[in-house]
Amino acid sequence: MTGPDTTFPSAVRNLGRMQVKQIDELREKIDALEKEINMHAAENENDARLMSMPGIGPICAMAILAFAPPMESFRNGRDFAAWTGLTPRQNSTGGKQSLGKTSKMGQRDIRKLLIFGATVVVRWAARN
Q1: What transmembrane ranges does the database entry give (predicted)?
Q2: Sign of CA dihedral 9, 15, 19, 24
Q3: How many Cβ atoms sit within 10 Å of the Cβ of residue 46?
Q4: Do 31 and 59 fall within a single domain?
């Protein structure tokens, strides 16, 4: 943005400098929040247990603990998956079972984080 060959008006250069400064400030705030999240996750036993699963990091673990009902209310992992809407919808009639699309019930943010984590694990496994 500076130099002899720039043709931007000074107002545009000033605006660009302001935006770069804001981006740097936001980056610093994000880094501080990430450190705080990582420290909390390292101290919390439930976070550590969730993070032991591939694709689950500190942010996803904290989101699950913040937005999901207590884990004791689910009998097993399948019940939790059904609550998040990750299991296929079942349409059964006359003894004939058919599975449809995912139900997409439950907390949308948790579902998105879990899908993103699973996608990363699958891509990482495909590369290695």
Answers
A1: none
A2: positive
A3: 14
A4: no
Residue 4 lies in a domain: no
- Amino acid identity of 74? F
Q: What is the pLDDT of residues 34-68, one digit of tens each?
A: 999 999 988 988 888 889 888 889 998 998 888 88
How would you write the chain as a 3-class SS string? Answer: CCCCCCCCCHHHHHHHHHHHHHHHHHHHHHHHHHHHHHHHHHHCHHHHHHHCCCCCCHHHHHHHHHHCCCHHHCCCHHHHHHHHCCCEEEEEECCEEEEEEECCCCCHHHHHHHHHHHHHHHHHHHHC
pLDDT in tens, 52-108: 888 889 998 998 888 888 888 889 888 888 888 887 766 677 777 766 666 566 778
Report the alpha-carbon distance of residue 56 to residue 69 in Å, rounded.
Answer: 18
Q: Is the pTM of this model over 0.70?
A: no
Residue 24 is assigned to a structural domain of this protein: yes
In a domain, 1, yes or no: no
**Which domain, by its residues, includes 66?**
46-127
CA 89 from chain center: how many Å? 23
